[in-house]
Amino acid sequence: MAAGALADVIRHKLGDLSPAERKVARVLLVNYPSAGFETVAVLAERAGVSAPSVIRFVNRLGYRGFPDFQTALREELDERNASPLSLYESADRARTDEAADGEASLLGQGSRLFSSAVAQTLTELPPHDLEHAVSLLADGKRRITLAGGRFTHLLAQYLGLHLMQLRGDIRLLPAGDVERTAVLGALTRRDVLVVFDYRRYEQDKVTMSRLALEHGAKVILFTDRWLSPVSAHAEVVLPSLVTTPSPYDSFVPTLAVVETVVAGVVAALGDDAPARLRHTEEIARRIGLQ
Question: Which CATH number fits domain 6-81: 3.40.50.720, 1.10.10.10, 1.10.3720.10, 3.40.605.10?
Answer without folding.
Answer: 1.10.10.10
